[in-house]
Amino acid sequence: MGNVVKAYPDVLCLCPDEQILRVCGVLLECGIEAYSIAKMIEMCPAILGVPVDEHLLPILDYFEGELDISLDDIGDMLRHYPG
Fold this sequence. Notes:
Layout: H1 2-7, H2 16-29, H3 34-43, H4 52-65, H5 71-80
């Protein structure tokens, strides 16, 4: 976690319940395992600051609904390209 704070000090300003846990929850719903989420955060700590309701969920809805991509496939994409 120290590397995350060094790379993305703004993480200290994020609300754990309203932001960090929500982002992690969405990633878990995409089939990403907890250990992979930790690796993703180390690779791209800014992912923790992505607005869930305004950005993350609409994108997932678009991929699922309009592009017919399953949540598991979306999870695979996010795992490989978290940024």
